[in-house]
Structures are given as structure tokens and as C-alpha cells.
Model the fold of this input.
Amino acid sequence: MTRTGRLGRVGGLAASAVALTPFAYLWVQMVGNADDPLTFRVRLGMAIWMVVFGTPWMVAAWLLWRAWWRRAGAGLAALDGPARLLAAATAALPGDRRDWGAAMAAELAQVPGAAARWRFAAGCARTAAFPPRGSRVAVGVAGALAVAAVAAAALVTGAVVPAMRVFALAFVGLVGGLATLAAARSRRGGRGGPGLGIAGLALAGVAACVAFTTHYLAEYPSYHQGHPPAVAVSLPPGTAVVLAVVLAGCLWPAVRPPRWLLSDRHARSLGAVMAVALAAGLVVTSRLEDAGIMGALLLAPILVLLPGSAVAAAAGRSFRAGLAACAWAAVLGMPLIIAAWLAEALRWYWQGRGLLLDADGGPWMVGANLGDAVWWTLVLLALWAVPLGVIGAAAGTRWPRRRAATR
Done:
């Protein structure tokens, strides 16, 4: 085996080990923070669950590493540190600036000395990240509007919905910062958007999440816990910041998506279909099951995202098309799932039932649905659905290859 092959194999094993590390750490934390001494059977059961969730990530990390190594890793292995930094910086450049990246790479080859090469590569990376092409007036106007919006959000929420202040400040600040960054990086012509349907679906999901969050914090800013008896805040500051980051992060790709998400039209369509299917499955399950939706949350990605990503990869004849469909499903599905969760939780509350997740407690715990919707949706898509989508994309690429080989 050649040196490049050995590096690729070692890198794949390292990527799988890194993917498994958070789950091993979580198991150690759960065992160490237990109130009572745990038996061997309980520890084994917890370890089995960590393996169940960690194995798809190990496989997905190996598949992603292998795809990257085949495309660019072997060439990067022969480069030194400054050349790798420059290659990583120029890889994110738009198509109309790729010639500049190639010219800088050729000029770096003529720079002598390690220190000079690092300075040149760092300067090119800074220019690639913040190109001098945006209008200073537009950047100043966008920044001023962002500051004014944050101040207005602080005043309005303080007077109307005080429990929403942290979320409003974080969300408005993030959206304003992203808008300012977009103005700083804007250029004539620009790249195309994902389409009115995709952008409208993302905006509708984010708007629905903000509306339901406002309703919950206005009507149920806190709830009574049964064990131990206490009063808890419906949206703690940490959860409020996480929700703001999630919604702003889902809104940004729908308005200004990266280039690789626009490479395949079928991937966008399939991603939108999968996102709607995940949210619709939650609604259907909540109306058919009386024991909560936890089981459906774990089963839905297997039934929707795994085959959907495979179909997208097969239709686009590339691993990247399957990854794009998976990414669109996650970006569009997260706000839709949170909005559907909060809507169905209100229906359960009006019927005098418990939490939507597992039917625990009673209707007095309605405020707890807000935190459940944020954290469990994040866990569902980030820790379970995304690796299944990567595995599905890898499986979908085998069908066109096998068919071509047969021909």
C-alpha cells in the first residue's frame, strides 16, 4: 500500500474515533452523575444506547472522509502548511474568483522561507474570507439597522413579553449580523438562490416558530414541576440562545445558500419533501398515539431521510447530491418540526393531556413543551437524522455505478 493510501486509511479511522468520542464522554458523564450506584446491567444498557446512536456517526464520518480524500485529500497530503491553508481558503471562493485563487497558489510557490510563506498564505486567507467588494455605505446601513432592531426588540419585549427578551435579542442580533455580513460580502451578479418555494418554506417555518414561541412565553412563561415541586421557566436563557441560533442558522442557507447546496435541483426538491414529511409525520403521530411521539422521532429519519437521501444521490448520480438533499431536509425540517411540535402540544393541553414527548405529567406542564421541542428536535436531526442521511447518500451512489458497470 502506498503512503497516500495509508494516510487515507489512518485518517478514516481517526475520523470515526473522533465521531465516537462525544458519545463515550456522554456515557461517562451519565454514569458519573447518577444519584445512586448503577448496576452492571444498567451501565451496559446505557452503553448499548450510546453505541446505537454513535455507530451511524462513525460510519458517516468514515464515508465523508473517504469522499473528501478521494477528491482532494490525496493532493493536499503532498502540500506543506501554508499551501494547505491557502487551498482551504480558496476552496470557499465563488466561481468568478477561482482564477484569483489559482494565481495566488502559483505565486505562493515562488515565495521562499517558511515565515514568508505563512504570512502570504494568511493574508490570502483573510482576503478570501473578507473580500473588499462590498459597499461601505451598504455595510454601514445594514449595521445601523441591526443595532436599531436589537434596541427595538429589547424595548418591545421588556414592555410586552419580558420572558422573551433573551430569545428576541439573540435572534434579532444574529439575523442583523448575518445581514451585515451579507452586505459586506455582496458582489454584482451574485449567486442564484434556492428558489421561491424553498425560501418561502424556510421563512414560513421560522415565522411559525417565532409566533408559537411568543404565544408560549406570553401565556405560559413558567410551569409547575411535579417532582420535585417547584416552578420552572418555560424558556431558560441557554435554551433561548440555542433556539435563536437554530432559527437564524436555518434561515441563512435558505436566503443565501452556499454554492454546493445549489448544485442539484432535484436535491432541493427532495430535501423540501423530506422536511415536510418529517413535520407531517409528527402531527399524524401526535393524533394517533396517546403515549407521546418519542418512538416516532427515532423511527421517522429511518423511514424518510435514509431512503430520501439515497434517491437524491441516485438521481443526481453523485454523493454530493445526496448530502445536499440531507442538508436541505435538516435546514427546512428543523423549524417546521419545532412549529408542529408546539402546535400539537397546545392541542394536547386543551385536551387536558401531558407532555407531547412522552405524555408525562399533566396539562400544568405545558410550558415544558417549549424546551422539549428545541432540544429533542436538535438531537433528532443533528445526532440521528444527519448521519443516516449521509449513509443513505453513500448507498444511493452505488446504484448508478452498478448500472454503468452492468452496461
In short: The mean pLDDT is 82. The longest strand covers residues 222-225. The chain has two domains: 3-129, 191-406. Residues 191-406 form one domain.
